[in-house]
Amino acid sequence: MNFPGEIIVKEVGPRDGLQNETEMVPLEAKIEWINMLSETGTSYIEISSFVHPDWIPQLKDATEVAKQIKRNPDVTYAALVPNLKGLERALEVNVDEVCLFLSASESHNKNNINKTISETLPVLKNVSKEAKGAGKTVRGYVSTVFGCPYEGSIDTEKVITICDKLFTMGIDELSIGDTIGVADPLQVEQVTSKLLSYFPKEKIAMHFHDTRGTALANVLVAMNLGITKFDSAVGGLGGCPYAKGASGNLATDDLLYMLHRMGVNTGIDENKVINAAFYIEKYVKNLSSHQMKILNSQPL
User: Fold this and answer.
1) Has residue 1 been placed in a domain?
2) Per UniProt, what is one GO molecular function of this protein (predicted)?
3) To 5 degrees, how large is the angle CA 122–CA 124–CA 130?
4) CA angle (22 as vertex; 17, 25 as ends), nearest 5
């Protein structure tokens, strides 16, 4: 296998990790946690989502989070933005990157944002245009690429069509999501290889969930194909609020353990990430990462 010497790990815990928590994490805790993450060496943190509070109550404090965190000039601070109203809020607090999202599945898209894919695309096009006009980079998310909780398998040709429409909008990067954690390494190889026959690998990131324990194996396959950007969340936080049974994201701490022992550079301090995991664990349900399970089971 031919692995890259360096990988960019994009921390999505403050957004994708917290959005499905049942108990509200205090604003002050979110700010402290993001400040801790900012000092780990990561170059990217997705801090929140500017969606309507009724959609995701856990992230209703996005404006205050963005205002109060201590920004590291070496970190890109991103946020999810569903529409022009959300973009207005995001620009008011000067996020660095605007993230757009839609699903490759009609049913999931309807359940997620109450619109069809064809209804969603013009909205995203306007957001991308305005964000680029404001000097922001724009990232796209395509979810349920490897499987949908309502429709099952998703046609890769449909995924390619959606990706092409997003790149035509001028997005800078596209994150390919295994939203409910059903992907296996062979499927990842097949789908990713097809995507890379249309789009440059430098503009593709992978977003795996670990519902069935295959996330790290899927990372290895994607790395072997030349993918160098991966989304993850500290402690394996997260899940999809519209996909029952979908467990957490690929855990940042588990990913770093594997990569660093393979000699792959990330620029991130594992110990600082673990400290950040212990901090946020005081406010959320038990973290699911292997690293945290081991550390929590050790005697003091």
Assistant:
1) no
2) lyase activity
3) 105
4) 65
In a domain, 2, yes or no: no
Token readout for 233 is 């969340």
- Domain assignment present for 16: yes
Cα–Cα nearest to 62, from 89, 88, 36, 35? 89
Domain assignment of residue 39, yes or no: yes
CATH of the domain at 258: 3.20.20.70
Neighbours of 153 (CB within 10 A): 11
43: left (phi over 0), alpha (psi -120 to 50) or beta: alpha
What is the number of structural domains in the chain?
1
Task: Tell me the chain's radius of gyration from C-alpha atoms.
Answer: 18
> Structure tokens of 290?
């292997």
* Catalytic residue positions, numbered: 240
Rounded CA-CA distance 17/158 in Å is 27
The amino acid that residue 198 corresponds to is: Y
pLDDT in tens, 113-134: 889 999 999 999 999 999 999 9
Query: Is the model's pTM score more than 0.85?
Result: yes
Helix (H) or strand (E) segment spanning residue 125: helix 117-133
